[in-house]
Amino acid sequence: MARILLINPNKWGRGITHIWIASHSGILKRNNHTVELFDASFYEKWSLNEVQFQTDNKMYKKTNYDDYLKFNKEDIFKSLQKKINEFKPDFIFWSAISSHIHGEGEYVNIQNGYDLLKNLDLQNAILITGGLQATSATKIILNKMSKIDYLIGGESELVLLEVLNNFDNERKLKNSTKSIESINGLSFIKNEKFVQNKKQKIISNLDILSPYDYDIFEDQVFNRPYNGDVIRAVDYEMSRGCIYSCNYCVETIIQKYYDFESFSQQTGAIKNFKSYLRNKSAKKIFEELSYLSKVKNVKLIRCQDTNFLTNDRSILLELANLIKESDLDIKIYIETRPEGINEKSIELLKELKVDGVGMGVELSDSSFRENELNRFADQKKTINAFKLLKENKIKRTAYNIIGLPNQDEPSILKTIEFNKVLNPDNITVAYYSPYYGTKTQKKGNSIGIFDEYETDVDSALRSKSKSDDILPLKVLDHYKKEFVSLVRNNIEK
């Protein structure tokens, strides 16, 4: 069997149980491959202090999170080299698409992982990677990161499994009929020419990936700041895919890759969403949640489903019944859209033990959202959603974006005022990230706002841009740092 080293190049300085690590490790181990993980999360000279940064600007409530962490003072490159020398992997793999495709640094994983590996002695290990950049800018990545042997486009669990299986066959059977380079989903450079194989089919049955391997993470990774406390938490997915096609969102990159990009101009929803939105079975979900709760002592399940309330309602109802009949001691945090929150869905959320809900407000100008972003979200429904959740004692987080193309300072001030009306329990604001391949990025590039392509993105800012051509970066920095304070107090003009 093959030996594979997974690299978690996390630079955020906090625990993240990346879904892609758990899903890939699980299916590879069940197929008798040897899997180990090198986690960069807590190396002192590598990691940023994202928690402190977000606490200072009041997006996170103050906690004693640092007391739960032990940072490694060793040189990360020497540590990784030692790991490679001792483990002697056949493959080294990092970066992949998970359900929370736009968050937790997954967009920059490919760059960060390559930075860790590019100057090391890899002991003849084959470098293979995937993720958003690998899918949207395949040829660019291969040209810029020349040591990479193979890229995987789209969802990569089954492709990587096939690669390892065929590698093992080739090693044992010199006359293997199928080489790695014939596997669908792979791209590579051969004889100085770019080769892109046929796409791998989308994974239609998510149950085949279950159970995910959360044992591969070190224990401190499970500690997470949450609403002023430190709680044991995991990142988790019940489904994959989003029915909507917002112009700025990385989800559209995956929709396009799998030919799901046709959408309705009236609703912003993709037309064939029933095939694209896939759910685990309630039984599989409950089995995994039970294990995480009772074996790993996890108290918070951070569901990274792109839009939780678009999941199959029958599955959610069955899961709610299984939870109700059990002694499962968990809280669930979800992300969804405001229009899905009503009296009926509130009752379901309570039965599912949902403790917090994150919703994209983005910005307050509904005309801008619809015309520029293809995001349809009625203001009244948004206000009502926040009101209903508060009345039912479910915590509310408002997600906001600044630095969009054609967005001016008055627009930011209006968004701040709208957040005052919503009065959420928690508020986040992020710089707009010009994800390569999205319609908003292409438009920004056409009018000279963004670079054509940049692999050297900043982990804290999510991406670099020429956004100061519209709003000076110092203006964006000001509102990034003061957004929450301005919502909670009077706007200082």
Kindly describe this structure.
The protein is an alpha/beta fold and 493 residues long. It has 2 domains: 3-196, Cobalamin-binding domain (Rossmann fold, 3-Layer(aba) Sandwich); 206-488, tm_1862 like domain (pyruvate-formate lyase- activating enzyme, Alpha-Beta Horseshoe). The chain contains 17 helices and 16 strands. The protein has a 7-stranded mixed sheet with strand order 2-1-3-4-5-6-7, with helices on both faces. A hairpin with a 2-residue loop joins strand 8 and strand 9. Helix 10 (282-294) packs parallel to helix 11. The longest helix has 16 residues, at 157-172. The protein is globular.
CATH superfamily of the largest domain: tm_1862 like domain
Assembly type of the chains comes to single chain
Shape: globular
CATH fold type of the largest domain = pyruvate-formate lyase- activating enzyme
User: Which structural class do you get from the secondary structure elements?
Assistant: alpha/beta
Mean pLDDT: 88
Strand fraction equals 15-25%
The main β sheet shows up as: 7 strands, mixed
Annotation, overall tally of beta strands: 16
Short description:
The chain is an alpha/beta fold and 493 residues long.
Key traits:
alpha/beta, seven-stranded mixed beta sheet, 35% helix, 493 residues, pyruvate-formate lyase- activating enzyme, Rossmann fold
